[in-house]
Fold:
Amino acid sequence: MTTASKGATIAVQILEQWTTSYPKTPERQRESLASALAGLVAQLLKRRKRSPGEEQVLSIVDRAVPSWLLTMEEKDARGFWICAAAADLLSLSRPRENVSVHGATLIANSLEKARAGASSEALLEALALNVGMDPICSPNDRVKFDAALHEDVKGGLLTGDDAQVHEKGWRIGRRVIRRAKVIPVCE
Structure:
């Protein structure tokens, strides 16, 4: 084993041990460590060819960052600098099994308004808009059928056929959550 390989092996072992204690590290030390780690990751990512040890370092950091974020309280986030794949960080910002505090507040407000007699459909639509969902079409809109955005409720529509929106659909960003329900336009 070469000296460089031994060094990489030792670095990987230290990094693996350190990743479990990082979120509990005092803020001032955590900022210095995060800065050093970010610099290391940046240098490794610039390289076209990486050694197995370097790939292992990147893999450890990639696995550790999501768990760090999930175990940290908001107050603990000061001095915490992140180096991770953007897709992983974006997926963490979208709650999956648990609702965010913002989402819970919106739900609680909607329940309060429902008890006061507000329309449930209007409340749910406002809630959807407030959590970042966007409507796909509005009822009675005339559209060109697109199977990615529209659901043909009667059957027989081909891409580009004229259709009328029966029920709006929903999306978050580019991701379609529910396609708009459409019917063929009969002229």
